[in-house]
Amino acid sequence: MPQTPGFKILRKLDAGGMAEVYHAEQESIEGFRKTVAVKKVLPHLVQNEKFLRMFLDEARLSLRMSHANVVQVFNVAKAGGSYYVIMEFVDGTNLKGITEFMRSRRTLIPIEQAVFVMVETCKGLQYAHTLTDRSGRALGIVHRDVSPPNILLSKQGEVKLVDFGLAKAADQLEHTDPGVVKGKFSYLSPEAVEGQTVDCRADIFAAGILLYEMLSGRRLFQGKTDYETVQQVRVAEIPPLSRINPAVPRDLERIVLRALAKDLRQRYQSAQEFGDDLYQFLFSHGLKVTAFDIAGMVKTVMNESAGPARGGGSAGIIDELIETELQKLTSLEEGDSPFRGGQKPLSVEEISGAGTGSMDSLEDPRGWAGELDDGAALRLPQQPGGAAVWRESMPTPLPFRAVKEPRAGGPARPEPRAPARPPDPEPAPPRKKSRTGLLVGVLVVLAAVLGVLVWLAFFRDK
Questions:
Q1: Three-state secondary structure along the chain?
Q2: How far apart (Å, rounded) are the C-alpha atoms in residues 114 and 116?
Q3: Catalytic, out of 57, 145, 163, 203
Q4: Treating both helix axes as pointing N-terminal to C-terminal, what angle do 95-104 and 200-216 enclose, rounded to 10 degrees?
Q5: Integer distance in angstroms from the first to the last C-alpha of the chain?
Q6: b/e sequence 342-373, b meaning 16+ C-beta within 10 Å
Q7: Is 145 a catalytic residue?
Q8: 241/52: higher pLDDT
Q9: C-beta neighbour count of 414 within 10 angstroms
Q10: Which pLDDT score is estimated for 79?
Q11: Domains of the chain
């Protein structure tokens, strides 16, 4: 049975309640090497048929995706009873790392950069939402977990969506159980909390939460308990953004509020519509921002947050065991079915239909996700009425290019330049003495001397 090339584990990148992610190097024939990320499903989850079917659904969807704003999945494979996803390695950090860095510095992402990150996120979401099968039929994909850890930002300024682990397509055989809430509680939509069927507008609501939090520097929905958080999402009461951050223009606040509309009919109906309004905001206010700005921010955050590399340069015992497993990695397109006996190969198209075992063992998927929330919110001093005191708690100096405060009446005007100082006049050349004047002077002196001599001679004769 053919095998994939060997992998060398370089370091452990992350770990959660569902999987571990490693930075690895794939070696092929004649010394060809490629840097990849390897996602390993935790062993206890592989034993559960329901979870494994959901994982394989994710694999089938991910293998179909190819977009600049979505992390590319190269292969899904099995080795030693474990399942692996081989994917593009994004050299950078995630939005969670960026916001935590800003929080530690008591500052914010510049407005234009926050908007740019959300525009790029919308591009990835629009692609996933409109993806079709070979016959042109829409798959109806919904990410369902648009949250800070799943927005990756690279050192080149790229913004990429990752982890469609909770994504649902209309044609997949593993359907979500009615009434079961999936996703991080703080980034759910009101309709998801109510147990209703969700569509692309649930992802738009989550994207609106991300933009609100980038612009405000505080969490939007976060209760003391999971129940309180869910209740806050259900009510969907949005504190005025401009009260928290007066630098946010009113038209940008209106865009954010529309993305966060509780009424589905009032919310943006597509990620493209949301992203287009954000683009229009940048253009109308004359705000210039590119991937170069994002790259600078990412590099600054990574350099200032750099600590000892996890795992160091050499692999530990666990890493060595995983590396040994990866040498035997077999693509699921060629490997055995995880549910059927025998040696029948399992194609990518068949992945989603593998197995129909009992679904009673994991009624609530929250235990799969480990941390349900991703860190404490930025705690600001509170006024007696509950409003955050912005100026005292959030100083304006930024470690990057300062936020441009656009004019409300139209494009920002360039600052008037001081008039150029005229050059100093050149010094006049020295005047040349007149030769005629000099000659006259000499004659006068000679005449005076001659007169004196004549006078002396005359009186001496007398």
A1: CCCCCEEEEEEEEEECCCEEEEEEEEECHHHCEEEEEEEEECHHHHCCHHHHHHHHHHHHHHHHCCECCECCEEEEEEECCEEEEEEECCCEEEHHHHHHHHHHCCCCCCHHHHHHHHHHHHHHHHHHHCCECCCCCECCCECCCCCHHHEEEECCCCEEECCCCCCECCCCCCCCCCCCCCCCHHHCCHHHHCCCCCCHHHHHHHHHHHHHHHHHCCCCCCCCCHHHHHHHHHHCCCCCHHHHCCCCCHHHHHHHHHHCCCCCCCCCCCHHHHHHHHHHHHHHCCCCCCHHHHHHHHHHHHHHHCCCCCCCCCCCHHHHHHHHHHCCCEECCCCECCCCCCCCECCHHHHHHCCCCCCCCCCCHHHHHCCCCCCCCCCCCECCCCCECHHHHCCCCCCCCCCCCCCCCCCCCCCCCCCCCCCCCCCCCCCCCCHHHHHHHHHHHHHHHHHHHHHHHHHHHC
A2: 5
A3: 145
A4: 20
A5: 150
A6: eeeebebeebbbbeeeeeeebeebbebbeeeb
A7: yes
A8: 241
A9: 7
A10: 78
A11: 6-393 (1.10.510.10)
Residue 338 CA to its chain's centroid (Å): 36
Q: What is the pLDDT of residue 3?
A: 46
d(CA 56, CA 174): 10
| 454/457 Cα distance (integer angstroms) | 5
pLDDT of 57 above 70:
yes
Q: Please report, as a single letter, which amino acid is at residue 130.
A: T
**Token pair 């630098």: residue:** 247
Determine contact, residues 130/203, Cβ cutoff 8 Å: no
Report residue 386 as tokens.
């509950």
- In the block, residue with structure tokens 């509780």: 262
pLDDT of 344-380, one tens digit each?
333 333 333 333 333 232 233 334 333 334 433 333 3
Amino acid at 349: E
| CB-neighbour burial class of residue 454 (10 A; exposed 0-12, middle 13-18, buried 19+) | exposed
The Cα–Cα gap between 15 and 32 comes to: 28
Cα 412 to Cα 16, 116, 138, 161, 266: the distances in Å are: 45, 18, 42, 32, 30
The predicted model scores a pTM of 0.67
Which is more confident, 83 or 442? 83
76 vs 326: CA distance, rounded Å: 12
